[in-house]
Amino acid sequence: MNVSELLQHTRARYLRDEEAPFLWSAPELLMYLNEAENIFARRTHVLSDDDSDFTTITTVAGESKYALDPRIIYVSEAYNDTGFRIKNATRNRMPRTPYEGKPRMYTLDAKVSSIRFGPTPDAAYDIDLVVARKPLRAMADKYDEPEIPEEYHLALCDYVAYKALRNNDTEASNTTAAENFRADWEKTLTEVKRDVYHLRAGNSPRVVNNWTGGRR
Fold first, then answer.
1. How much is the pTM?
2. pLDDT at 97
């Protein structure tokens, strides 16, 4: 669905705001729609990427730590220049004594803004990442479509309706309706993140049994 269709659906089905002059302007609802897609991508990791130019890091000899592109939410896999999958290690499992070589493991900092390789690279290597990322650009035109899979487009309308009602509720008359939309939105995020997690982890019983449904 495109922007025009999603905003019309939100006005007609959720906000009952179909008669001009509208209570909510198109730019306001579009702002909430973009906000919704960014939150959806960040919370569910549904946008996977290994093709964009920012998913390849070229190492420098003697440097172990590299900044990640701000569009990257999380790194799920990493491969060296021979296609060998590099192990995702915790900080305390990284090499404790400084030595150099071809990277065989990596770790992410707490805010996922940088990645550290071990051993410290001794030359230039291309490390290819598989990442969860944010949308690459904001929706601006009525014919633009969200980047997240189409099956989740209508979920964005729950967030748009929640923000619209919450921010235009001077007498608290819309509180219940806003909270209902927020609850539906949160439920969808939890379900989608669970599905994405299981899809990428496979059908391992350990994965299924350890899933808590919590947020990342």
1. 0.85
2. 66
